[in-house]
Each structure stands twice: as C-alpha cells, then as structure tokens.
Write a structure and sequence with these properties.
- This protein is α/β, with parallel strands linked by helices.
- It is built from 13 helices and six strands.
- It has a six-stranded mixed β-sheet, sandwiched between helices.
- Strand 5 and strand 6 form a beta hairpin.
- Helix 2 packs across helix 5 (82-94) and helix 2 (27-54) packs across helix 9 (178-195).
- The protein is globular and about 45 Å long.
- It starts with a helix and ends in a 6-residue tail after the last helix.
Length: 269
C-alpha cells in the first residue's frame, strides 16, 4: 500500500505539471485495458522475435518495427485518456516483485514523467540514487544536463516524456542485467504503446541496445534513424557519459539537430 500511495502521489504531481486537471472515474476499466494492451504487446513482440530468429539477415532486428499494432489496440479499447492509462500502469509497476535484488534495493519504483501525448520520448538506462528517492527519472546531475539539452532544442521538459529501461534502481547504479531488462520490458512497451510517440531518443548504449534488441555499440547506432512501434528512433550518448567526457557533447548536439530536422522543428542558434 505504501508503494501504491507513493506511485499515486508521484503521478498526480507529474500530471499536474503536464497540465492535466481531471481524471475519469472508470479506473477499473482503464486498468483492465492496460493489462490487456501490455500482454498483447509482449505477445506481438515475441512473434516478431520468432520471425527474426528464422531469418538469416543480421539486420532484421534493427529494420523491423516491434509490436506495430499495439497503438491501434489502445484506441480500440476506448482508453483515449492516456493519463489514466499511464496511472493504472504505474500502479501495477509499484507492486512489481519480479526482480528480488532490485526490490530489496529500491526505495520506490520510478515509472516515468512528462506529457502523455508527447511527440518525443527520451529513454534512459535506470534510476540512480536521486531518482530512487524522488520517484522521478533524470533529476540528478545527469538529469540537469538532460534539461539543458532539451532546452537547447527549444523544448520544455513538460512537453516531452522521460523514462528508463528499468523502473528500479540497480545496486550501486550498476548496468541493468539482461534478465532484469527483459522482465521490465512489458512495462516499457506498455508505456510507449499508450503514449504513441512519433520520435524516441535513446540515451546511451544500454537504452539503445535494450529498446532495439541489438548488440551494436552506441558509436555505431548514433547518426541514423531506426523504426520501433511506428516511431523514429535516434540514439545518442547518455548525459552521465557527457559529464565524464565533455568532448562528446558536440556529437550529441549533432544528433539532436538531426532529430529536430526530422521533427520539422527549427534548430536554435
């Protein structure tokens, strides 16, 4: 119950910041629809994975969209209120006990924050210490740099959506393990299927490799677009990496300009 209360408080606060003032009464219906959507998305992705394994082409994993029909299922379920759908999924995440070590280590789950109707979604790696305490992604030093990157693009944090591959902090901020990312993937797919972004920006190798299901390095993934659930995906360096390697900021800005051009937005001088 404590986890549920924290999740509810976190989401109400994020919804208020995003301009949402009312939620529908049909919470049970929304929760049921989200559960159906998440399961359908995972089943669709498993089907795509099977097709990939049967193919001899090494590039299929990056060339094909995953769970392409998932956004349509949201509309069919009648849950056009994405804020309520995300809140229902966040409550489910708060009760998750799939990873024993992560459950023991976390203060709370860190679901995501931002505009439920965002055109652009940023996907990072996992919560850190600050995020674990606040219950919101990218609020520490790396988060402050991400805010500057978003502002440099002429955008506001409130108009994009920010989330991670994992919704729990790994011990000592270690890299997420493959099985942890796999267990958390249904929540990742569920969030993206509800928001239906046109663009996704993967921050760092962990986010890019897990979202696109590829072993390619971030150096080879950046500088081009991929397709995922009907969205265009661009990969760039994680803000935490930029704090350690300031020289890579130039390449990150090149990636952001590429993204802005694809979005049809003016590139700030």
């Amino acid at each position: 119950m404590a986890d549920l209360r924290r999740a509810a408080a976190q989401w109400l606060d994020s919804l208020r910041r995003g301009g949402v003032t009312h939620l529908p009464k049909r919470a049970a219906r929304v929760a049921s629809a989200v559960e159906t959507l998440t399961q359908s998305t995972v089943e669709s992705e498993e089907s795509v994975k099977a097709e990939r394994r049967a193919s001899s082409s090494p590039n299929v994993a990056l060339a094909r969209p995953v769970a392409e029909s998932a956004p349509a299922r949201v509309a069919e379920s009648g849950t056009e209120d994405r804020s309520a759908a995300l809140a229902a999924l966040a409550a489910e995440v708060a009760q998750c006990r799939r990873c024993d070590e992560l459950v023991r280590n976390r203060t709370q789950t860190v679901f995501g924050v931002g505009n439920p109707f965002a055109e652009l979604v940023f996907v990072g790696e996992a919560p850190g210490a600050d995020e674990d305490l606040r219950g919101e992604p990218f609020v520490g030093a790396a988060g402050q740099l991400l805010n500057k990157i978003i502002a440099a693009c002429g955008l506001k944090r409130e108009e994009v959506y920010i989330m991670n591959i994992l919704r729990c902090r790994p011990p000592n901020n270690r890299t997420p393990l493959p099985d942890e990312a796999e267990r958390c993937r249904p929540f990742l797919l569920g969030q993206l299927s509800i928001i239906r972004p046109k663009f996704i920006c993967c921050l760092g190798a962990c986010a890019a490799q897990n979202l696109l299901q590829t072993p390619e390095t971030i150096g080879r993934l950046r500088g081009r677009f991929f397709e995922f659930q009907g969205a265009q995906v661009i990969c760039t360096y994680h803000p935490a990496y930029l704090l350690r390697n300031p020289s890579a900021k130039r390449q990150t800005w090149e990636d952001m300009q590429m993204l802005l051009r694809a979005m049809g937005r003016e590139i700030p001088k």
